[in-house]
């Protein structure tokens, strides 16, 4: 679906700000920037490994917003926090431009509070995608090595902080996130294989175990531009991607239908069919990670549900998800509403209202993870 952890307009503004403010230039080793000594990671608390959340623009929250999120999310039993590591923002203007600062701050804070970070290494700067200002254009083949180097720098930096799960791109089967048309061959051979090798090289050098997840797939029809998630996964296997993912990323949205609904297009109830493709390719022992999932309460927009239904469905979703033996975490999108416009569904996926008031779904989420 067309959701953004980093909205394109704001992302462009962030890139512009970073360039104007002055990125670190000619850094001989971006991995050795100083850490924030006030957020030394501690041993994680016991949490539910099925529980995850996707808080929008986490690295750019104010101190108050970040501290509020940490305090509130500690009230749940959730373990994972999914966030972007956008290449286009961290290395915006060339191989020697680096801006890890906001991401260091967020990851230091999350790990210090015992959460597991699930980074999405994703999106591409203009200098590596053929000159497009839209960072949803993927790296060109000649910049595959630069993609590898970027992923490796991220892994070198954050695996020592306890980041042991890595997702490679967001929804590469729809043109909202892979332009100009989706291309499973390019995704597998440029992004997935090189990204996997980069993370694993870092993990091996550090003697750590990590899980690399293929980019979570969205609802779509195969129409010459977008690719149906089942077709896309089959394509990954056809391109030899089996050995380059430890888990399959899946976005099991089904709004406004119940997670139990058997309507043909429901990605939630498509999960067993996704797993069957894995079984057919000798991959049945791997997990399906639901790296993004939710319901919006923008009832003026197609697909919206009431706040009561949102709470009901979150309870049912986690119950059903836990019954499948081949599923990993299920990450709820979003933590808090992004606004109050009932005509904009993107503003209404939160467990809380824009002013911080709990929706019924907040307590339902807490209860589901007990």
From TrEMBL:
Keyword Signal assigned: yes
Annotated SUPFAM superfamilies: (Trans)glycosidases
Renumbered residue ranges of the record's region Disordered: 28-51
InterPro entries: GH (IPR017853), Glycosyl_Hydrolase_39 (IPR051923)
Keywords linked to the UniProt accession: Signal
Protein origin, superkingdom: Bacteria
Extent of the signal sequence: 1-21
Keyword ATP-binding in annotation: no
Example of a GO MF term: hydrolase activity, hydrolyzing O-glycosyl compounds
Protein name, per record: Glycoside hydrolase family 5 domain-containing protein
Species the sequence originates in: Mucilaginibacter limnophilus
């Amino acid at each position: 679906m067309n959701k953004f952890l980093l909205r394109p307009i704001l992302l462009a503004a962030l890139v512009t700000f970073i360039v104007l403010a002055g990125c670190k230039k000619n850094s001989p080793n971006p991995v050795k920037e100083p850490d924030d000594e006030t957020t030394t990671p501690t041993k994680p608390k016991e949490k539910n490994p099925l529980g995850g959340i996707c808080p929008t623009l986490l690295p750019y929250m104010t101190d108050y917003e970040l501290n509020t999120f940490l305090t509130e999310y500690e009230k749940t039993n959730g373990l994972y926090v999914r966030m972007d590591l956008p290449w286009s923002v961290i290395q915006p203007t060339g191989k020697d431009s680096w801006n890890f600062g906001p991401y260091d701050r967020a990851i230091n804070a999350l790990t210090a509070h015992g959460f597991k970070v699930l980074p999405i290494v994703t999106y591409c700067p203009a200098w590596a995608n053929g000159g497009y200002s839209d960072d949803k254009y993927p790296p060109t083949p000649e910049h595959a090595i630069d993609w590898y180097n970027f992923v490796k720098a991220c892994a070198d930096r954050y695996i020592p902080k306890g980041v042991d799960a890595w997702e490679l791109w967001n929804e590469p089967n729809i043109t909202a996130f892979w332009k100009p048309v989706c291309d499973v061959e390019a995704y597998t051979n440029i992004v997935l294989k090189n990204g996997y090798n980069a993370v694993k090289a870092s993990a091996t050098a550090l003697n750590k175990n990590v899980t690399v997840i293929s980019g979570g797939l969205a609802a779509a029809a195969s129409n010459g531009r977008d690719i149906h998630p089942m077709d896309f996964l089959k394509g990954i296997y056809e391109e030899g991607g089996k050995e380059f993912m430890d888990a399959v990323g899946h976005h099991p949205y089904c709004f406004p239908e119940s997670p139990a609904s058997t309507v043909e297009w429901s990605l939630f109830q498509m999960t067993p069919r996704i797993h069957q493709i894995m079984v057919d390719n000798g991959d049945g022992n791997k997990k399906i990670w639901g790296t993004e999932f939710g319901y919006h309460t923008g009832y003026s927009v197609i697909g919206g549900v009431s706040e009561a239904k949102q709470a009901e469905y979150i309870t049912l979703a986690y119950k059903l998800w836990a019954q499948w033996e081949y599923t990993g975490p299920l990450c709820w999108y979003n933590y808090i509403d992004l606004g109050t416009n009932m005509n904009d569904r993107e503003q209404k996926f939160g467990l809380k209202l824009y002013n911080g008031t709990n929706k019924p779904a907040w307590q339902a989420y807490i209860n589901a993870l007990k």
